[in-house]
Design brief:
The protein has helices spanning 3-17, 26-44, 112-118, 146-156, 178-197, 209-221, 242-259, 265-275, 288-294, 304-316, 352-361, 386-389, 393-405; strands spanning 61-66, 72-78, 91-94, 123-127, 136-137, 167-168, 202-207, 226-232, 339-344, 367-372. The protein is α/β, with parallel strands linked by helices and 409 residues long. The relative contact order is 0.14.
Amino acid sequence: MDRRQAIKAAGLLLAEASIGASVAKGQDFGALLEDFGKELLRQQLSPENIQRTLKPHLTGETFPIRTADGWTLVAHRFRPSTGMRPGTMPVILCHGLSYNAQFWDISPEVSFPQYLAERGWEVWVVNLRGSGLSSKWVAKIDAAPTMVVGGLIRRATNNRMAPTGYATLDPKFARWNLDDHINYDVPALVHLVRSHTRAPEVAWVGHSMGGIIGLCHLSRYQNPGIGRLVTVGSQVTMPNGQLATQFLMELLALRQGQIAGEILPEELIIDSKTSIDNMFFNNSHVDPRVYRALTHDGVDVPSIGLLQQYLTLAARKELLDAGKTFSYAAMLPNVQAPILVACGSADQLAPPAVQQTIYERVGSTDKTLMYFGRAQGFAADSGHSDALVGLTSRQQVYPYIEQWLLGAR
């Protein structure tokens, strides 16, 4: 067993230990790891470490917004190519767990924002906290230390955003959970788009967790700013959590290894997603180049608190808040906005049965259920992620979602 495998195995043991009774103490464990992160902060602030590697990011203009609890989120704006199409509302595209905004624009062949912009839509691709250019903790200074040198870079570029955004060595940005996305990120991003476009409402399109938080925000707050909602591969129930638990435990091991400064995130993310590959992709329906890109530029490491909330979902079979005081799944009748509930017909993380539950429970009178598969007339039985980045997504899935957003389905 090599060093990286040993670290991964140790991390998995820690993850296993966090399930059950110890899951309730997840935030305490997160605090312990953050204390360790403060020592890393001191180690990394040496002059020889003040170097940075700039990574390319999405096309489109970037806009920051500050949440009510002090995080900065970044959205990428794609303006319509030939003027705003009549009868459309701005569209927010939100990524899922372990991804960032790059998911939506990873390649021109599978760029949903470019597809919509070419057809007259205003599109905003967002990064949730802990991902992309938004506020997030990093273990090493060359992984985007804007806390240290970001101000210098902004002055040198006439106060434009640093290429690596709002990443920081401050360990307080290592902690968040699903409730923070629901309570703070969603309203901040909706406000950002509405304030810049003057639109009374936006359409929220979420993949996986990106759909979960839109759905749960509407179930809890009935936010009038979201006029239409599309969820692709989202879930608030989990009838069979075995595969999901395996994946979540590996992500926990990754986060623990990252905080300890012992693991390269890219390597373990590839290991994790490859080891249970079929849960994310129908391999015959995705370009290998897109898959490789998604396991590098398109990923970010979730927090321990967020992953433990997912583990509770896998264990309890329904999505609860972090304090386990109420069930988001039970609140779905509060959702009244028009909604498209969808997934790939071969999705193993959020399978059709899970989508059927969402469809039946939401209170919306305007609701549609769709599985992207051969039985429904599509060219392939899509998996969890390739429903949106697959070989036939641009030709079949994008037009279907667009037509639904127009109210034509």
